[in-house]
Amino acid sequence: MQKRHKDRRQYFEEQSITTEKYVIPFIEKSIPITKNTLVLEIGCGEGGNLFPFIEKGCIVTGVDMNANKIKNANLFYANYTETNKPTFVLTDIYDWETDQKFDVIMLRDVLEHIHNQEKFLKFVKKFLKPDGKLFLGFPPWQNPYGGHQQMFDSTIARLPFIHLLPTKLYTWILRKLKESEKEIEAIVEIKETRITIERFYKIIRDQNYTISNSTFYFINPNYEIKFGLKPRKQLRIITKIPWLRNLLITTCYVTLETRTKQTKNE
Ligand SMILES: C[S@@+](CC[C@H](N)C(=O)[O-])C[C@H]1O[C@@H](n2cnc3c(N)ncnc32)[C@H](O)[C@@H]1O
Question: Under DSSP, is residue 256 helix (H, G, I), strand (E, B) or coil?
Answer without folding.
Answer: strand
